[in-house]
Amino acid sequence: MMDMIPFSILDLAPITEGSTAADSFRNSLDLAQHGERWGYNRFWLAEHHGMPGIASAATAVLMSHVANGTSTIRIGAGGIMLPNHSPLVIAEQFGTLASLFPGRIDLGLGRAPGSDHTTARALRRNLASDADEFPQDVVELMDYFAGSSRRQVRAVPGAGLDVPVWILGSSLFGAQLAAALGLPYAFASHFAPQMMMQAIEIYRATFRPSAQLDKPHVMLGFNVFAADTDAEAHLRATSMQQAFVNLRTGNPTKLKPPVEGYLDLLGPAERGMLDSVLSCSAIGSPATVAQQLKAFIERTGADELMITSQIFDHKARLRSYEITADIQRGS
User: Fold this and answer.
1) What is the pLDDT along the chain (331 residues), one digit of tens a residue?
2) Is the CB of residue 14 less than 8 Å from the CB of residue 24?
3) Which superfamily does 7-329 belong to?
4) How far apart are CA 298 and CA 16, in angstroms?
């Protein structure tokens, strides 16, 4: 078995059909506790708004819940959609988290709103300019953590605290920014893989070392649907497939139960869309998933994988992460 890179967990805090956000939060903590025991490096939660099937809208609040119930695994945002917030507020939130849970908090920053335009307006965003200000907002936020004298306002808590900042992206923009600022880079290949190889190449070629990082670090999102058999894994994956089709056709829903033969029910356009957005995925038994993970790591040269498993049944989701951890450990 090759030397395996670290694996981390991306949890979208799924609200499944027939359940509530409270159920989702209990499951997120349970997954983080299992992930810690199984040797995962990080547990990240993503900011989304107005999505009936995703409960992690108040990302920093949920991170505190998960961090409080774990002890060693790093807890992070993958990510905070910075255009939705003032950099000072995020510095204070993550300064608070880093004060409560020293040495365990990561801050991933994204440029997208994590919502539709109507929801974005409800978040008090100025849609015309905010995305263009993302690089300046990132620098301002990092200044607050540095306690920089360039700022008239101090982040309390925040100033002088160790909160590693990551740039998240699904295009070449984030790769260029992460390289210019000397920050680690997380690419959303688990749902937007089209520019992955080009983004990795640009990031590595133009990386400038910084106080935070001396050499490039690439973490790639990757879907895993692992089960004891290939057939069961393919069935489990249909919940995620339904979620994508429903989202892309303008009808986001709670995470639905798996459907036998779901792909056969789809037209060519929907099948093509799924094949594209979910191309960075491993679906199958332990042996199948191990082969697919190994091939992906060899193709990309990733430094770390951020594993997401949008599986309806919580026990089956735990099993998928357990199988993946066994592969990572080579057991």
Assistant:
1) 446 899 999 999 999 999 999 999 999 999 999 999 999 999 999 999 988 999 999 999 999 999 999 999 999 999 999 988 999 999 999 999 999 999 999 999 999 865 667 777 787 666 555 557 899 999 999 999 997 767 889 999 999 998 999 999 999 999 999 999 999 999 999 988 899 999 999 999 999 999 999 999 999 999 999 999 999 999 999 999 999 999 888 889 999 999 999 999 999 999 999 999 889 999 999 999 999 999 999 999 999 999 999 999 999 999 999 999 999 998 6
2) yes
3) Luciferase-like domain (3.20.20.30)
4) 34
